[in-house]
Fold this sequence. Notes:
Elements: E1 3-11, E2 17-22, E3 25-31, E4 40-51, E5 53-58, H1 78-88, H2 97-109, E6 112-120, H3 128-139, E7 145-151, H4 162-171, E8 176-180, H5 189-203, E9 206-211, H6 215-232, E10 238-242, H7 251-264, E11 266-270, H8 281-287, E12 291-293, H9 310-320, H10 326-335, E13 359-362, H11 367-373, E14 379-382, E15 385-389, E16 392-393
Parallel strand pairs: 1-4, 5-6, 6-7, 7-8, 8-9, 9-10, 10-11, 11-12
Antiparallel strand pairs: 1-2, 2-3, 4-13, 13-14, 14-15, 15-16
Helix pairs in contact: 2-3, 4-5, 5-6, 6-7, 9-10, 10-11
Amino acid sequence: MTSLLLADVRPWGGDPVNLVIADGVITDITTAGTATDQEARVDGRGLLALPGFVNAHAHVDKSWWGQPWVSYGGQPTTQGRIAHERAERDKYGIPSIAGATAVLREFLRHGTTATRTHIDVDLGVGLRGIANVREAAAALGGAVDVEIVAFPQDGVLRRPGVLELLDQAAAEGATSIGGLDPASIDRDPVGQLDALFEIAVRRGAGIDIHLHDGGELGAFQYELIIERTRQSGLAGKVNVSHGFALGQLSPTRQSELVEELGAAGISWTTVAPVGSAPLPWRELRTAGVAVGLGTDGIRDLWSPYGDGDLLQVARSFARLHGLRADEDLTYAVELATTAAAPFVHRENHALAPGARADVVLIDAENVPDVLVRAPRREVVIAGGQVVVHNGELQV
């Protein structure tokens, strides 16, 4: 049994303690200064400790991170971005094992130790992107716990053969299958959703649907998803990504939908993009709708922005929603850590006995200070292994 003592750290900015780690799991918490007989010791120097960040919405297969700069091109619409990516991705070797590895290493650098990533499944790449990401994760020794969503970026029904690929991906272990704007992309919301839910029920998979459509068109699709989630018994296994329409609706309409989302057991993920309408986050929390944060794409053919730092996304969420009180700023960090456990199917993602030993040490006074400054991650421990030390990657 390998063991590690992470000494003199302040969980969530509290009193200093030692975290005792064995075989990749936190086994005990002791008073700082207590003598122990662990095989190895890391001096936490009184730094603030957080659980590893959980990126609940990523695309680690798409990035050109680490390659020469790629200038933005194509049309700014969703369909325009899809077409541009399909035309250009082969030129830049997308997807690739090296590309996915580069992104996962940046995740680690910034303290992300678990992610739910959407991986393109289409007639051009088949399931190759999934194989690449699995190989990249394995090459890092599982430091980043990767959960896979087989994602039909180019549409579902409008591309015959994609449903069969999604079914195959689910049969081969993809945790969830994705969908994309059933109304505006496939122009058949009932058909797309019926097909996705049929696969999910038969394969025991979850569903994670990208929904960019706004206003009442978006709301209509939420209602279809709620209805099918209830009928299929998939409570706790269905997620809406982006869901911009929810922030655009009247308060009364929002309240009605949020209550139904909570009752159906549907979760929500957002990347808190600049210019989007704020979500009714208090109502979502009250209704029990799990909310996760994600980086979305990182330096890809959709956008040159992104660096893999989920803490920056949490800060964007806080600013978009006008969070200023300490408890609300702390809530934004919780969304990126402990509260995101369901998105990677963890019952315990905390600085507590029984949790996987994913720990991030930051030189900060308290959690609000962490959020507003986003300091470098001094030490990152993933599954009990030191992967970042003094801000530098060790893998």
